Structure formats: C-alpha cells, structure tokens
Amino acid sequence: MSKPLFQDDAYLTEAPGRVLAHTDQRGVVLDQSLFYATGGGQPGDRGQLTWDGGRMEVATTVKGEGGAIVLVPAEGEVLPPIGADVVQNLDWDLRLRHMRMHTALHLLSVVIPLPVTGGQIGAEKSRLDFAMEHPLEDKQAVEDALNDLIARDLEVTMRWISDAELEANPGLVKTMSVQPPKGAGQVRLVRIGTEGEQIDLQPCGGTHVARTAEIGRVRLGKVEKKGRVNRRVALHLEN
After folding, report:
1. Residue 155's Cα: distance from chain center in Å?
2. % of the chain residues with pLDDT over 70
3. How confident is the model over 155-183, as pLDDT tens digits?
4. DSSP of 82-149, one letter per residue?
5. Whose CA, among 7, 76, 80, 172, lies 20 to 30 Å from 22?
6. Which of the two residues, 202 and 45, has the higher pLDDT score?
7. Is the dihedral angle over the CA atoms 210, 212, 217, 223 positive or is it negative?
8. CB 203, CB 189: distance < 8 Å
9. Nearest to 5 by CA among 194, 218, 207, 159
10. What are phi and psi of 139, to 5 degrees?
11. Which value, to the nearest 10 degrees, does the dihedral of the CA atoms of residues 9, 11, 17, 22 take?
C-alpha cells in the first residue's frame, strides 16, 4: 500500500519515496505517493522521479491492487530499481488546475441543487451531469451565483468520519453514479465554509484548493441534454 501524501497536503510538490515494486505493465509503486491516482472523475497526476543516476517522466498515475498507487512511465522511460530511494516532483501547474476545477465543481453542485449523475475534471474543461428534467432557466444567474461564492474566499477543509457515520447520513452523498470508497473504516469529507456557516459538505478523495478565491473566475459552457432527465453542464476557468 502506498501512503497518499496528497490527502494530507495537496500543496506538496516534492517528496522522497522508495520503490517497492514494478507492476506487470511497467508501473512503479512507491512506499508513499505525492501523485494523485485517477479516480472520482479527477485525472492522475504527472511529474518526474529522479534517483542516483536516473530520471523517469511520470505520464499519469492510476490505482493498483491492495491500495497501491501506480506511477505510469512515459513511453521508453527507464524504471528506477526496486529498493531505490527517489525524489518525486509534481507537475504543479496541472495539479493546481485540477484543484481549482474540482473545488469549483463542488460549488456548482451548490448553485444547482440537484442530484449529480456524473462528472469529469480536466485542466481546460470540466463538467457535472445533473438529474435535470428541464433546462436552466437563467444560465447567467447560475454563473453569477457561482462566481459570487468563489469570491467570498471561503475556507476549504477536510475531516474524516467512519463508514458507519456516513451510512447514518446518506444525504452527504450527492453523486448518484459514483459512491465514496467505503470499507477502509473511514471516509474523507470536504467542507466549504465554516461549521457555523457551511456552504457544502460531501465525501471526496480528490485534491482541493485551501480557499475558494484561489479558483478565480469561472465560466459556464454548454448545457447539453444527455438523456430524458439528464443534463451536462460544462465549466471553464477564465485563466
């Protein structure tokens, strides 16, 4: 199992690690991972590994068996030897865009208070799918409300609850198609706002900014009908 460093500090850009294994597909498993593994609609991180006499480009990161986080090398890269001590360096620009996008999507689920049926995060465009029978009455009003929340510079914090606590509070889960990972005994909650003035609270294992003002202004893109009662809302960062 790889310790997920990003869960405790999404702003960490460099960290040591030790190579535990190579996978059959030439992936690299470390004892602790700076890199977020693809999941929950968020793409895996990219970056580099360096060690004494070598360097490997990390093209993406995926989940492996038994809680392993697998670093996928770019084509033709040489893998660090098993047992080697390495330095992990994150593609910070990409991670930060994913953090901004992911937090913005949480706020989008606040200003469109409907069940979420799917979602995808990207560096240039992200989207949420909603169980939305009728089209948005005023798309500009939704965009304005979203940017108003962002501009309030709300704090974003994380805490852990038990599986049993989540089961006792099913309303925390907004997503209909993807359930939060359970079975490890605890689930990570992401809160936007304070406990006294809470804007959003939901289970999430992704990476987020510490304050909403870091998101910057956003723009709603296309709103597309995807089925009888499903609509897809695209989101773009303005810079």
Report:
1. 17
2. 92
3. 999 988 777 776 766 666 665 445 555 44
4. TT-EEEEEE-HHHHHHHHHHHHHHHHHHHHS-S-EEEEE--SS-EEEEE--SS--S-HHHHHHHHHHH
5. 7
6. 45
7. positive
8. yes
9. 207
10. -60, -40
11. 100
What is the phi/psi pair of residue 20, to 5°?
-95, -35
Structural Rg of the chain based on CA atoms: 19
Q: Which 3 state secondary structure label does DSSP give 165?
A: helix
Task: Look at residue 37 in the predicted model and tell me its pLDDT.
Answer: 97
Contact 84, 40 (CB under 8 A): no
228-237 pLDDT, tens digit per residue, is 889 999 999 9
The distance of Cα 227 from the centroid of its chain, to the nearest Å, equals 26
- Distance CA(69)–CA(32), nearest Å, equals 8
CA-to-CA separations, 202 to 6, 99, 172, in angstroms, rounded: 18, 16, 5
